[in-house]
Amino acid sequence: MESIFHEKQEGSLCAQHCLNNLLQGEYFSPVELSSIAHQLDEEERMRMAEGGVTSEDYRTFLQQPSGNMDDSGFFSIQVISNALKVWGLELILFNSPEYQRLRIDPINERSFICNYKEHWFTVRKLGKQWFNLNSLLTGPELISDTYLALFLAQLQQEGYSIFVVKGDLPDCEADQLLQMIRVQQMHRPKLIGEELAQLKEQRVQKTDLERVLEANDGSGMLDEDEEDLQRALALSRQEIDMEDEEADLRRAIQLSMQGSSRNVSQDIPQTSGTHLTSEELRKRREAYFEKQQQQQHPPAPLSHPRERPTTSSGALGSDPGDAMSEEDMLQAAVTMSLEVVRNNFKTEGKK
């Protein structure tokens, strides 16, 4: 397929593309085709002048634009036909009665030129295969032998004029190569306008996707930063709460111990003028804790209470098996506080 010469559409130079794709090379330029068109215009003017240069028809002809070319690059069938005569080629209308009487199978021809309104394109046989060399396509389109007749019939139904190219076409590399091999086409070429529109749409979609990804990346970074800040604040609050709880716990234990001291001194009768020493206060506090311990964990019937040794600082001590947990000590402190409050109420009531 790469060896096939295929000019793509530029402006309205479809007649030039049609001829060059037919001949498989850059045989004609817009300047050369314009020269042929001017020559045809001059021949027509001379024929009109034969009727008199002062005639109304002649003056009208001079005022009309050229029928063989225009400023957009369009060229008439007469220009194309005269250009092919240089190479000894002739155009015959495919659906004319003269050609139809010949009953020639289209696959036995070598090439066709198709025209609809102001567009021209070539269908040519290269090697043993047919190709649609329309300049509006992104590349040559392979046409099977069985589809060729249907393709031409479809063009006629759409309003195309089809011309059979008669004569020997110039030799070309693609024709020689495709005489030896056959090609396969996996994807048919698209119209140039469709491809450009598709590429434009893909660029727009890519741009939109990049914008979305950029926006998501930005928001994702913001979300991550915000989450880190929230986690830091939560940890800070948690540390503050733990510190507050520890402080509250220490204050509660301190108040409970102070309350228990008052409770012990009130619960045990004292004679007026008698002052409890620190050693007596320690023993009474120890007796109170033992009493609370026995209420929560009654001793076995045969067991005998053992005196708990004390440290030099006066703190409570016990064997490893009888050691009180922090939770038990806290519970005992709270219970002692409640006892202080109840005893105060009883004392006030007696008074």
From TrEMBL:
The keyword Coiled coil applies. Its EC number is 3.4.19.12. The active site is at C14, H119, N134. One of its GO terms (cellular component) is nucleus. Residues 226-255 form a coiled coil. Keywords: Coiled coil, Hydrolase, Nucleus, Protease, Repeat, Thiol protease, Transcription, Transcription regulation, Ubl conjugation pathway. It catalyses: Thiol-dependent hydrolysis of ester, thioester, amide, peptide and isopeptide bonds formed by the C-terminal Gly of ubiquitin (a 76-residue protein attached to proteins as an intracellular targeting signal). GO terms for molecular function: cysteine-type deubiquitinase activity. It is found in: Nucleus. Residues 258-277, 289-331 are annotated as: Disordered. InterPro entries: Ataxin-3, Josephin, UIM_dom. Residues 258-276 have a biased composition (Polar residues). Residues 1-180 form the Josephin domain. Its main location: nucleus. One of its GO terms (biological process) is protein deubiquitination. This is ubiquitinyl hydrolase 1. It comes from Acinonyx jubatus (Cheetah).
